[in-house]
Write a structure and sequence with these properties.
Length: 590
């Protein structure tokens, strides 16, 4: 790649060095409908990139208008190429032959160069190759590597990576890859003083303090040439330049939008003509903007009017205006009063919800809808305080950890999967209850309870399986889906303390009658203390035929809602029958 700047880019640097304002072009996508009747000219996702395939002349004509408006930099109509690659759109643009995205990149460069040459501005108007933030993706590295091959033969004057949002760690590597092409790189973010900002002015994140500014300082150290903000409403620009100036000495710029794409087409900011846009440009210049242009809805007339006003306007360094509320233009004069907290029936705060800090290790199933229902009940009723507890089928440990957080003296967590055991131990440490939670790998079938517990919780797999389609294994294949629920139910008599209570989940696709029989035979009584209705989990969908068989042959059931299937999950509270109501087997006193 060339070690020296091109003549047009050198002029851009000279203007910045002389304290003059560099003028960018405006939008291409929102200008194409004026020059083309093709529907794709208003392609929302790719902002008219498809026009490179079928309306190349219209793209060139838009560039010509911006060259004639006196822009110092025009950008190629290639913004949407990374998005097209990410979504697999580009190969389907042409109905007659495949479209190679590199050909589109090459065509975008040539159209911009042609417009500059025809306008007699070869030495004074730079061409920026535009790409959006989707290049910061898994495919981005190969995309940039291929672009570098193109640039070696047909280089733009600079690379403009624009409409960025989140500063992920990977973005620094992406920017470095662009810098490694040997071309100047400008970055532009969709940001305002309130953080991430949408084209409509909605905020995707709250104030970030120094974080974005420190990222800006790092980009400067890496060697980018300019930092800008774009594609946000004009009234969100104020204050951003002075904020960035605290962190970086880079040339700073702005190019906001005046257009919004809706289902009915483009809508433009009312009352913002060329004079009004020029007045706003002067305000940004007074705050320190060294580069000014426009985004969606800003056309050649807006840019020409702004350029005329900016020619003699010196750059300022005005202070940031007072912070505004995200909802309007009112100034914050004092700290807002704290809102009354949302609390539960025990007076505990519910916002934020005191949910355990959990991670699901590879191979460990995250908490299901049913286990979340049990978690809520355990939390709501403060179950487990000062008691010895057992968590059967612990998974990530969500239920046992909540028992410990409720004040359990000790929680024993068991699971057949060694990964779940380790995951539970890690999550217990993460929540500060590692000293009261122990976990062990145990198969429920041969298990003999080593002690009795005052609280037992169990939320175990319940999947009817067709024996003819199931591979032979060491565990019984359960036609009825009651494995491993039945071993849990039958061993409660040996595992529960005399006054103990078990909380066991049963799904509606299992027989209620069979559960009642097993518990009665074991001398247990049962009642439903909570229930929930959930969509069929993905892992159960492949067994839908077997579920239907079980429902035909038993009292198992599910809920039909429109075209969807729903499960009912019941939380059973199980305890020993009183001695005077023991069943015929006399197990009630165990």
């Amino acid at each position: 790649m060339p070690l020296t700047h091109s003549a047009p880019y050198g002029r851009v640097l000279d203007k910045i060095g002389a304290g003059q304002c560099v003028v960018l072009d405006g939008a291409t996508g929102t200008e194409l409908p004026h020059l083309s009747n093709a529907e794709h000219a208003v392609d929302e996702r790719l902002w008219g990139t498809r026009a490179l395939v079928e309306e190349a002349a219209a793209v060139r004509d838009v560039h010509r208008e911006y060259v004639a408006a006196g822009c110092d930099v025009i950008s190629t109509n290639t913004w949407g190429l990374p998005s097209a690659l990410l979504n697999g759109v580009a190969p389907h643009w042409s109905s007659t032959q495949p479209v190679h995205w590199m050909d589109l990149a090459r065509r975008g460069l040539r159209l911009a160069r042609q417009a500059v040459t025809e306008g007699g501005r070869d030495e004074t108007c730079a061409v920026a190759f535009s790409i959006n933030g989707d290049v910061d993706s898994d495919e981005g590295e190969s995309t940039i590597r291929l672009l570098a091959r193109l640039f070696a033969h047909e280089p733009p004057d600079l690379i403009l990576l624009e409409t960025l949002t989140v500063v992920r760690p990977s973005l620094f590597a992406t920017v470095q890859a662009l810098l490694d092409t040997g071309l100047p790189v400008w970055l532009s973010f969709r940001r305002c003083r309130h953080g991430l900002c949408s084209v409509y002015g909605q905020h995707w994140g709250g104030p970030e303090g120094d974080s974005f500014g420190r990222a800006a300082a790092r980009f400067e150290q890496m060697g980018i040439d300019a930092l800008m903000i774009n594609c946000i409403p004009p009234d969100h620009v104020d204050g951003m330049l002075s904020y960035l100036r605290d962190f970086t000495d880079l040339p700073l710029g702005v190019y906001p939008n005046l257009g919004y794409y809706t289902d009915e087409g483009w809508r433009f900011e009312p009352g913002v003509g060329s004079p009004e846009y020029a007045a706003m440009a002067l305000r940004w210049r007074a705050e320190g903007a060294q580069i000014i242009g426009g985004c969606c809805g800003v056309g050649p007339d807006h840019v020409a009017a702004a350029r005329e006003q900016l020619e003699q306007a010196p750059a300022g360094s005005g202070p940031a205006p007072a912070a505004r509320t995200p909802a309007g233009d009112e100034f914050l004069e004092e700290e807002p009063r704290p809102a009354p907290p949302w609390t539960d029936h025990r007076g505990r705060s519910l916002h934020p919800l005191p949910f355990p800090d959990l991670a699901a290790d590879p191979g460990v199933v995250p908490p299901s809808s049913a286990s979340l229902m049990v978690w809520r009940y355990l939390y709501d009723q403060s179950i487990g305080a000062h008691q010895r507890c057992l968590d059967i089928g612990c998974g990530t440990g969500i239920l046992g950890i909540q028992l410990a957080l409720n004040g359990a003296s000790h929680v024993r967590a068991i699971d057949i999967d060694e990964r779940a055991v380790r995951n539970t131990e890690t999550n217990a440490q993460r929540n500060g209850v590692g000293d009261r939670v122990t976990a062990a790998q145990i198969d429920i079938f041969p298990w003999v309870p080593e002690e009795r517990y005052e609280v037992i919780v169990a939320c175990v797999e319940q999947t009817p399986v067709d024996p003819e389609s199931h591979a032979t294994g060491h565990r019984p294949v359960d036609y009825w889906g009651r494995t491993p629920l039945d071993p849990v139910l039958t061993k409660l008599a040996d595992a529960l303390a005399p006054e103990g209570i078990a909380y066991v989940v049963q799904l509606s696709i299992l027989s209620q009658r069979r559960t009642a029989e097993l518990l009665a035979a074991a001398g247990m009584e049962v009642r439903v203390v909570e229930y929930g209705v959930f969509p069929f989990p993905v892992e159960l969908q492949k067994h839908r035929a077997q579920v239907s068989r079980v429902e035909r042959l038993s009292d198992a059931s599910h809920i039909r809602a429109g075209d969807g299937d729903l499960l009912a999950a019941y939380l059973l509270e199980i305890r020993r029958q009183p001695a005077d109501s023991a069943g015929p087997l006399g197990l009630g006193e165990l």
